[in-house]
Specification:
- Helix 1 packs across helix 2.
- The chain folds into 2 domains: 289 residues, Na+/H+ antiporter like fold (Up-down Bundle), CATH 1.20.1530.20; 180 residues, Rossmann fold, CATH 3.40.50.720.
- The protein is built from 26 helices and 6 strands.
- It is mainly α and 568 residues long.
- The two termini are 49 Å apart.
């Protein structure tokens, strides 16, 4: 089928729209959908979309805008806030991933340049996939979630250096590698100074003038002009488009217009980034995989198993618990969007032979396809891998809990000692009601124990832990975390044995409230309705409604909670 450039572009955008809708409904990574569609419609499969340079050039702007938004989000304050263990683990993970992969590549007969590039690709993980799925699973602020996000931030920064180096290399750089790398770094430093000087002396005042016009279209056009101009400057210096875009983002992140800029640029980024991943998928020649399956498997295992083991080991060596380190390693056991960017750059610069590119691309695709499953079941996989250690720890924690709760009775058990759990505990302290808090954040537990709180490390979804917390003698069980699956699991364990025990549960909305009540929750506190009632209460106070009438209205609303849910 022969299509002109406009028809090809329209077809690709239509496919991108369709894939986004379908994969979001299925709660799968949209990146994987783009890659699969690209492989299907590309020249190596159905051939609907030809391998045209014009499409590839347009798709490169997806990475340009991605790097621009990464620059906008980059913050020295955020970087300095990282724990020392994250710095050590992240920097060593990146360095050792490159060194180990390079060493293996050299043993297999690869050139130094090719091995370094593949090592750089292996070192990267997917910020987009990991951050989104952790958010969906309510693990973004867990110990392993924060640890993984810190390492991902360091990877995002490291990719800038790698882009500078790869853009300065070519297939003839083997003999004078040190000189080429040094010259690339000099040009990179010059580009940083030049772009930041322009930003300080010209762009900041210019954006203030543009903002006064209150013309959104002028503001959007200015953002696009700055992004593409910075990309053009670095390209003219022999570096990559992506570096200039990142620097432009960093420059504008220091202005008061940062959030508005991000809003204006996001539609362009999402559309062109989808196009980028489709064109990456178009490079895939699945028909050749059976010839190189052993090499694909080797690189895939390096990306997943090798990187997981490396991060686990480094995490433990820097003082993290074994379970946190293992779960962090599982979260980062995949290739990432910047791996694809480095691969594309290396292929364009003729550093990687096409056959190496196919092997690397296949391994990246497989790792990303498997990644959502690994992230979804990271806790179960970690427990399976650490079964003996987990059993030893559970026995130790159970004994510790039995000692701590030996004399406690008529107490409240608080499952989850985060911000909500701590707030509940503070109210109980004021009325001298004893309680036992359960949580899996070891640092939080240590701090609270030093403050004299009866808070114990333990997973409340395990029946032994609840038994050790003296559930039989408790007044009330409170599930303060917002995790539907875990809450249902606790209700299924507790309700049949203790039919008269009051159980208070926190949830998000009407759907979750109904499910939890069906499983035996005595009272369900829905965040949506409580926030609405609190706002309404303050609003009525501000407009001088008498306190007694406000109290009557709020109590009446609580009595009609189900009807309120239906109206929302």
């Amino acid at each position: 089928m022969h299509l002109d450039i406009l028809e090809v572009t329209l077809f690709v955008f239509f496919i991108a729209l369709l894939v986004t809708v379908v994969f979001r409904q299925l709660k799968l990574s949209v990146i994987l959908g783009y890659l699969l569609v690209g492989a299907l419609v590309g020249p190596h499969a159905l051939g609907i979309v030809p391998d045209t340079p014009k499409i590839n050039e347009l798709a490169e702007f997806g990475i340009v805008f991605l790097m621009f938004t990464i620059g906008l989000e980059f913050s020295l304050v955020r970087l300095l806030a990282l724990k020392f263990s994250i710095y050590i683990t992240g920097l060593l993970q990146i360095s050792l991933s490159i060194l180990i992969t390079t060493g293996i590549g050299k043993l297999l007969g690869m050139t130094t340049l090719s091995a370094i590039v593949i090592g750089s690709i292996v070192a990267m993980s997917s910020t987009a996939i990991v951050a989104k799925q952790l958010h969906d699973q309510l693990e973004l602020h867990s110990s392993h979630g924060l640890f993984a996000l810190g390492i991902l931030l360091l990877q995002d920064i490291a990719v800038i250096l790698l882009i500078i180096l790869i853009a300065g290399l070519n297939s003839t750089s083997q003999d004078n590698l040190g000189l080429v790398l040094a010259w690339a770094l000099v040009k990179g430093v010059f580009a940083i100074i030049l772009i930041f000087a322009i930003g300080h002396w010209l762009l900041k005042p210019l954006f203030r003038i543009i903002a006064r016009t209150r013309a959104i279209e002028l503001f959007t056009l200015s953002v696009l002009l700055v992004t593409l101009s910075a990309a053009w400057i670095t390209n003219m210096l022999g570096l990559s488009f992506a570096l200039g875009a990142f620097l432009a983002g960093m420059m504008l992140a220091e202005t008061e217009f940062r959030h508005q800029i991000e809003v204006e640029i996001r539609p362009f980024r999402d559309i062109l980034l989808g196009l980028f991943f489709i064109t990456i998928g178009m490079l895939t020649n699945i028909s050749q995989w059976h010839h190189t399956w052993s090499w694909i498997l080797l690189l895939f295992l390096t990306l997943t198993v090798g990187k997981m083991l490396l991060i686990t080991l480094l995490g433990c060596l820097t003082g993290n618990r074994f379970s946190v380190s293992c779960r962090t390693g599982l979260l980062l056991a995949q290739g990432g969007e910047f791996g694809f960017a480095l691969l594309t750059l290396a292929l364009n610069e003729k550093i990687l032979p096409p056959e190496y590119g196919q092997i690397t691309l296949a391994a990246l695709l497989l790792s990303i396809a498997l990644s959502p499953i690994i992230i979804r079941f990271n806790k179960q996989i970690a427990n399976f891998l650490l079964l003996k250690l987990s059993k030893v720890n559970e026995v130790r924690y159970e004994k510790e809990m039995l000692r701590a709760t030996q004399k406690v009775k008529h107490h409240i058990i608080i499952c989850g000692y985060g911000r909500v759990g701590q707030c509940i505990a503070s109210f109980l302290d004021k009325v001298d009601v004893p309680y036992v808090g359960l949580d899996l954040d070891s640092e939080l537990i240590k701090k609270e124990r030093l403050a004299g709180k009866r808070v114990i490390y333990g997973d409340p979804t395990h029946p032994e832990i609840l038994r050790a917390a003296r559930l039989k003698r408790a007044q009330v069980l409170v599930i303060s975390f917002n995790d539907l699956r875990a809450s249902i699991r606790i209700l299924r364990m507790v309700r049949p044995k203790y039919p008269h025990l009051p159980i208070l549960v926190r949830c998000r909305d009407e759907r979750e409230s109904k499910i939890l009540k069906e499983h035996g929750a005595t009272q369900v506190i829905a965040e949506l309705i409580e926030e609405s009632l609190a706002l309404s209460h303050h609003l009525l106070q501000l407009i001088n409604i008498p306190p007694r009438k406000i109290s009557h209205i709020i109590q009446d609303a609580r009595g009609q909670e189900d009807d309120i849910f239906k109206q929302l």
